[in-house]
Amino acid sequence: MAEASENSESMRIAHLTLLQGVVTRMGANSFTLKALAATFGSAGIAIMATMQDPSPYYPVAAVIPIVIFWLMDAQYLRLERGYRHMFDQVRRGEEIEPYSLDAEPFMGEIAPVLRMAVTWSVAWFYLAIFLSFAAVALLILCGDLNGWCLGNNSETGCEA
Is 151 left (phi over 0), alpha (psi -120 to 50) or beta? Predict the structure, then answer.
């Protein structure tokens, strides 16, 4: 009897280790998506800044993948929360099929992707990218950065 209990406990610990690996991968994927979004935003700005006459379509082309990364990041967060619920049930010793990685039964209590996209852990990062991207894009599209005048400056010949 004690051997069956030890076997059950070792299976539970192995299942917890497996689930922890899944949660860790979700976090790593989320970080990678954030890095890719920042890279796409920076690349869009760099392309616009090097063009003689930048098109207003360049910012739109850079924003589309950033929005997709934002939604993918929200989905990873959603899945991670589902696996964390599953992890808690396995940890408490509640009945779950050994070594199961099916988090679908736990997803019902998790918010949908669009609601996850506006949580503080996701939204602030992407909003910061969009705001900085929009500010620099407006500077590039609406005027030459070298020709902008901030107040009267007799040395450069600028007058506000």
Answer: left
